[in-house]
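To: structure subgroup
Subject: Chain for Friday's discussion

All,

I'm putting the inputs and outputs inline so they're searchable in the archive.
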Amino acid sequence: MKSGEDNKNWQSVEAILSAAHNASLGRDAVFIGVGGGVIGDLTGFAASVYMRGCRFVLVPTTLLSMVDASVGGKTGFDLFNVKNLAGSFYPAEVVYMPVQSLSTLPDREWKSGLAELIKTAILSGDDFLDMLAETIKDNFLRGDKLLKCIEKAVLYKGTVTSEDFRESGKRALLNLGHTFGHALEAAAGLGSLSHGEAVAWGIIQSCALGLLLGITPLKRAEKIKAVISHFGYDCSCPNRLAGTDAFRTAMSSDKKKKQGKMTFIIPDEKSAKIVDIEPENKKIVEKLLTEGYNF
């Protein structure tokens, strides 16, 4: 399969299912996804629906897929220009992480994975966030420090998802930065921005919204922004897309929305909280999208 967000579609899923069917595979077949998050999500979804579910193994080869996509059992693909609109919960029975593959990653792939590491660090507490700020040089992690960060991220996400597998509660916190980030990816054209670039920007917007709503302490918002800026993410340029109709349409399709209310994950004193936007606060969100908010 080809990698990349523009290949995360039904046609790719159908190609996997067609290959399995042509090979006369049964329910005892093993689908093995080797690659990044897109490949893993497509393989997992295909495995979940082939003959109502067959065996599934993951071999993530990018930092993003190791610390995020391979853990927790979410699968899916993009549909109607909405990221991951179709999907299932179907965890791999085995996840093998060949960390030596990380030495082959281009800079953009590193940054995409680092954004999810930063997200996890914000959620799990300032010790992890401080470790990232203090130990990363030239935007990269190496050796034992890298392995320690991967381990911390996987253990944190694994703990959260095992307690709330189908995202009915605490697991939604793992979407920090994603309500804004997914909408940005859609507005820019899926595949134009890396997932990490969009999530990093989305985390900054979540901090800004938290400041406007009185939830995020200014000191912590500045700390988070400093760490993200340290890694060279563009925290302001994509704002030109935030006020577009395409962005608003994508946000209105967000999977966390309940009873017509937009839901955001907003950093608080030590971690983050799930916030439903009441009607009286919609103007605050709209102002943030059209005017931005610098801090």
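Points worth raising on Friday:
The chain has a mean pLDDT of 89.
The radius of gyration is 19 Å.

D.
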